[in-house]
């Protein structure tokens, strides 16, 4: 499994921010230090090439060292239909969001989406990113 660590930093003053790497300029909060909405991603990749594409990452809150967000995007084989699909899970511990999206790999069309409060989600048991299933 590839191991990718992505941290979001302010594009202007390089302050580390606890923000989704996929946030758009419209949804960004201005930087607390300088007010800029420019961002850069710092990506550390310890990559092993695998047969099927997948990306996994996490970010930590700078001050506390606690996890801020975690995400997994990978291809997943659905035995039921015999198709490969994109499977995305995003956990935002700062804003309390658990989101799961399944897409058709060819068309990118959204087939399933589940978005709930992380607290509600953890109410059902321990929240854990899905591991890679044996095939
Ligand atoms: Zn800044």
* Mean pLDDT figure: 74
Our count of helices gives: 1
Q: How many separate domains?
A: 1
Strand proportion: over 45%
Order of helices and strands: EEEEEEEEH
- Order of strands, main sheet, comes to 4-5-6-7-8
Which shape, going by the Cα principal axes?
elongated
C-alpha-based Rg, rounded: 16 Å
Class derived from helix and strand content: mainly beta
Distinct ligands: zinc ion
Q: How many strand elements? A: 8
Give the biggest sheet: 5 strands, antiparallel
Unreliable sequence segments: 45-51
Report the helical percentage.
under 10%
How widely separated are the two ends? 14 Å
Describe this structure in words.
The protein is mainly beta. It has one domain (3-122). It is 4% helix and 47% strand. It is built from one helix and eight strands. Strands 4-5-6-7-8 form a five-stranded antiparallel sheet. The protein has a three-stranded antiparallel sheet with strand order 2-1-3, with no helix packed on it. A hairpin with a 4-residue loop joins β5 and β6 (83-92). The longest helix is centred in the last third of the chain and has 5 residues, at 118-122. It is elongated. Bound molecules: zinc ion (ZN). The site of zinc ion (ZN) has 8 residues, from loops. Zinc ion is lined by residues 10, 12-13, 15, 31, 33-34, 36.
Please give the structural blueprint.
Elements: E1 3-10, E2 16-17, E3 39-46, E4 54-60, E5 67-78, E6 83-92, E7 97-104, E8 110-117, H1 118-122
Antiparallel strand pairs: 1-2, 1-3, 4-5, 5-6, 6-7, 7-8
Bound molecules: zinc ion.
């Amino acid at each position: 499994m590839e191991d990718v660590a992505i941290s979001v930093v302010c594009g202007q003053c390089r302050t580390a921010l606890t923000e989704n790497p996929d946030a758009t300029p419209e949804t960004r909060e201005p930087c607390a230090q300088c007010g800029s909405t420019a961002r850069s991603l710092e990506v550390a990749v310890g990559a092993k090439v695998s047969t099927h594409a997948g990306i996994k990452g996490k970010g930590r809150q700078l001050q506390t060292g606690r996890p801020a967000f975690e995400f997994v995007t990978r291809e997943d084989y659905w035995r039921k239909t015999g198709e490969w699909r994109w499977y995305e899970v995003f956990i935002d511990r700062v804003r309390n969001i658990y989101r799961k999206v399944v897409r058709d790999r060819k068309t990118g069309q959204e087939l399933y989406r589940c978005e709930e409060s992380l607290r509600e989600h953890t109410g059902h048991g321990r929240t854990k990113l899905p591991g890679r299933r044996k095939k």
